Every structure is written in structure tokens, then in C-alpha cells.
Amino acid sequence: SSSTNYGEQMDYQITGIEAGAGVVGASEEALETYDSLAGWEVATSSSGAMTTALGEAIDNEEPIIVTGWSPHWKFQQYDLKYLEDPENVFGDAENIKTMVRQGLEEDMPNAYTVLDQFQWDEESMNSVMLEIQNGASPQEAATSFVEENQDMVDSWTEGAEEVDGKEIELVYVEWETEVASTHVVGEVLSNMGFEVTTTPLDNAVMWQSVADGQADGMVAAWLPLTHGDLFEEHKDSLDNLGNNLEGVRTGLVVPEYMDIDSIEDLTP
Ligand code: PBE
Predict the structure, then answer these.
(1) Which of 26, 140, 157, 187 has the fewest beta carbons closer than 10 A?
(2) What's 27's domain CATH number?
(3) Number of H helices and number of E strands within the chain?
(4) What is the average pLDDT across 107-122?
(5) CATH value at residue 117
């Protein structure tokens, strides 16, 4: 069958991203869960390498399976589909939450207010991601988003006062979603007078640094499933400020032209 050829054509490899990503962990669990994935592997690399491989496969109409998530510009650029996951290894829709270090509320109440009130939607995040994909720097994309969405920004800064050069460090992972959100929040804080540092880290280190209090906060917690183990490990040392974006998801993603719909349609 064509799905047998798919496995051979892909060397039984799922094109993954960073080894520390939750979606990579879920994909490894899928290998254990589905007989159809016996003998397959998740090849880890980076989110950038994954999107490059995806683009090349699509140019050549070759099969490819990537560890995917949405929102993400790849769904606007290409015709893609999630493979059905009847065992629900990748979970249901999730939310992205904001976590800050304990003590931030007392130390920097104005930053805390903004981080607590920061909440946006898929369309907004998509617009920032797409601008970056089209060549803007994350800083440029964040600046124009903030300029063009002053009402939304006002709802985040409501009740917060400007400050005079206080330092704040936001940590994130270089996933397109988190690059977008972190730079937007950073831009808002910087407009309020904060000296903002945005530091890209490995996923586990991002969680650890906020739990330790080395960093002040992050807007990159995918829950309940994708970062569920990291949340369990660190939740007692964190201040959970709740959702900043609702209804995100992860899974195995393939081009529409592939003749399969479910993880179970693959063959070992
Ligand atoms: N992601 C994007 C991350 C969370 C945000 C889905 C690649 C992960 O898998 O950990």
C-alpha cells in the first residue's frame, strides 16, 4: 500500500524539533503507543530545521511527517493536516499560560500587572508570526503589533504605572509562537520604562530559571499536556498567572497531498 512506501520513503523518521520540546516527548510516546509506528524514530533538530525540511518536502511533493503545533505560520503557507490521534497521545486543545517567579508581585507590581493581564488570540499571534516569517525581526514585528493594537495593549497595561529603567528578564524557547508572544510582551514592558531582556533557552532550562527566580517570567507554558511534566516539577515554586492564549494544539502534521488521515494509517 502507499502507506508502506511512505515509511520507506521517510526512512521511518518523523521530522522533530528541539529534543526538549513537549511535542517531541509526545511523539516518542506515540511510537510506544501505536503499533503502526513500531520501528519509527523521531529525529530531533530545531524548529527552523523542521520548517526548512517541510518546505523542501512540499516543493518536491515528497512525504514528510513533522511534529507540529498551531497556531503556526506553516498552516497559512502550506496545505497541511493533523493526523488523527485516536489514542489521544497529543491530548486535546490546550492553553498557553504565563508563569512568573515568586516574589515578582511584590518586587515589580507594575510588570506583574501587565504579565497577569496579557492575553491575546490566535489571529493576533498569527499576524506577528507571519510578519517575522516574511522577514521582519521579532523586535520589528512586536513594535508594529503594539502600535497597531493599542486597545488590546491598553487592556494589558490597565492599572499599571510606568517605571524608570527597572530590569526585567523574560525567558522563552525559540519556537515561532513563543518568539512572537515574548517579544510583544517585552515591547509593552519596554514602553512602560522597563529595561527588558529576552533570553532564549532550552525548554527545561526556561522552566527551571523561572522556578529558581533567576528569570522573572515566561509566557510559554503549554498546558495541561505538552509541558505537564515540567509544570508538575516546578509548580510549587512558580506563580501561575493563567492563560495568555486559549485553544492551541500539537500533533503529527503532514501535507494534505499525503494519502493518510490517521497515525494508524502508517505501517511499521
Ligand atoms: N511547541 C511550541 C512547544 C510548545 C510551544 C509545541 C513546539 C513544545 O512542544 O514544547
Answers:
(1) 140
(2) 3.40.190.100
(3) 12, 9
(4) 98
(5) 3.10.105.10
Cell numbers for 2, please give them. Answer: 502507499
Could you give the angle at the alpha carbon of 152 between the alpha carbons of 151 and 158, nearest 5°? Answer: 85
User: What is the distance in A from the centroid of ligand 1 to the CA of 219?
Assistant: 12
What is the amino acid identity at position 208?
Answer: Q
Q: Whose CA is nearest to atom 4 of ligand 1?
A: 222
Whether 67 and 17 have beta carbons less than 8 Å apart is answered as: yes
Give the total number of structural domains in the chain. 2
Range of the domain at 22: 2-92+250-265
Cell numbers for 240, please give them: 501561575
Ligand 1 neighbours by CB, cut-off 6 Å: 17, 21-23, 69, 175, 177-178, 203, 222, 226, 250
Considering the chain, what is the average pLDDT of its residues? Answer: 96
As given in the structure block, the three cell numbers for residue 150 are: 493599542
Confidence of residue 54 (pLDDT cuts 50, 70, 90): very high
In this predicted structure, the answer to whether residue 1 has a pLDDT above a threshold of 90 is: no
Question: Could you write out the DSSP letters of every residue in 46-68?
Answer: -HHHHHHHHHHHHHTT----EEE
